[in-house]
Design brief:
The chain is built from 16 helices and six strands. By secondary structure, it is of the alpha/beta class. Helix 12 packs antiparallel against helix 15.
Length: 348
């Protein structure tokens, strides 16, 4: 067979950096309302339980609603839509959005070809909403988000999201806002220096621990540092943009870092590798992409147990979810090997 390739294959992308306390607040809300991951985070599960217990009754109600309908994702999507610089401005800008525009922003982005269906769902079409749900039925929380838009409407979700962010900033985020801002700014400066001397792909790998190769339709990668969700990297996408909310580096956590304090991501890596089941799972995934069902069958363990081990491998950057299956992040070990040599002071 003779094939003439007239397609366009992108060989690079632009990397942009952004940091904001509002992203930090939204990711804190995401973390506290996803208890399945609390055992894999840098902050212990007891921290999140205490934080929730100390919250006002009003904030707890908003967090309960968020946990049920995954509205933290809506919050992040709104923060990308307009450059809000405070919770107060967020409140005003969100409430002034036309209902259709608000719904379109908070409905999950799928692919460009689904944008017209998404727009129809934003206008209130139940048929379009059902089509969107069908297109993402296997996603962990997109169907719940779509149901929430239809059930509570723009008015109800506007009230919820503005109250949620305002109360989080007042009761929790504001406690260490100055320190968090300083950490984010130090990390941003570090990554800007990387951009001056490294390829876009290398910067993404070093910052997010993800090997992201150029792909059609994606012209930029947006890197957003966070403190609260360490050591996890959270992936998201918008039209033309791949987003990574990545954990700030250890060196960014303090003005004068302790040279004998190992990087959190490095510790997470060796913890992830220090288990027989996880090593077996990693070998299986390195051979080919595997679904959760395949892994539970091959490992001979239950779904909940398998999910726990895979969450730890993901948090260490060793595997990622790709097309509904678990895929090996091939270059991650080379990246972590460099981190180990850096920590030991042996890298040339």
């Amino acid at each position: 067979m003779h094939i003439f390739d007239a397609s366009f294959k992108r060989n690079t992308y632009e990397v942009e950096l952004a940091a904001s306390l509002l992203f930090e607040y939204a990711l804190g809300i995401a973390a506290i309302t996803y208890p399945k991951l609390h055992g894999t985070m840098e902050k212990p599960a007891a921290f999140w339980r205490q934080l929730r217990a100390e919250a006002s009754a009003e904030l707890r109600r908003e967090l309960d609603f968020c946990q049920k309908h995954q509205t933290w994702k809506m919050l992040l999507q709104l923060l990308h839509a307009v450059a809000f610089d405070s919770a107060e401005r967020f409140d005003g800008e969100v409430r002034s959005l036309k209902d259709e525009d608000f719904n379109f922003i908070v409905l999950p982005y799928l692919e460009p070809e689904w944008n017209e269906v998404r727009r129809q769902a934003a206008r209130g079409s139940e048929e379009a909403a059902k089509a969107l749900i069908g297109a993402c039925k296997d996603h962990a929380f997109f169907p719940d988000m779509i149901h929430a838009v239809g059930r509570y409407g723009a008015g109800g979700l506007k009230r919820h999201l503005t109250n949620l962010l305002r109360l989080w900033e007042k009761e929790i985020g504001g406690r260490d806002a100055a320190e968090s801002k300083a950490i984010l700014e130090r990390d941003l400066a570090e990554k800007k220096a990387w951009l001056a001397s490294c390829s876009p792909e290398e910067v993404v790998l070093r910052a997010a621990g993800v090997e992201y190769k150029p792909e059609a339709g994606v012209t930029r990668v947006l890197l957003i540092p966070h403190v609260i969700y360490r050591p996890w990297t959270i992936e998201a996408n918008m039209e033309g943009t791949q987003i990574y909310y990545y954990p700030v580096s250890e060196s960014s956590m303090a003005d004068q870092a302790d040279p004998y304090e190992p990087p959190g991501r490095l510790v997470q890596l060796y913890k992830a590798l220090g288990d027989e089941k996880r090593l077996r799972a990693l070998k299986l995934i390195s051979e080919q992409d595997r679904s959760l069902k395949e892994l539970t069958d091959l490992l001979g363990i239950g779904k909940t147990n398998a999910h726990h081990h895979l969450a730890i491998l993901r948090s260490a950057g060793l595997v990622r979810v790709h097309g509904g299956s678990y895929a090996w992040n091939r270059d991650s070990l080379n990246h972590h090997a460099g981190e180990l040599l850096d920590f030991l002071g042996l890298k040339e």
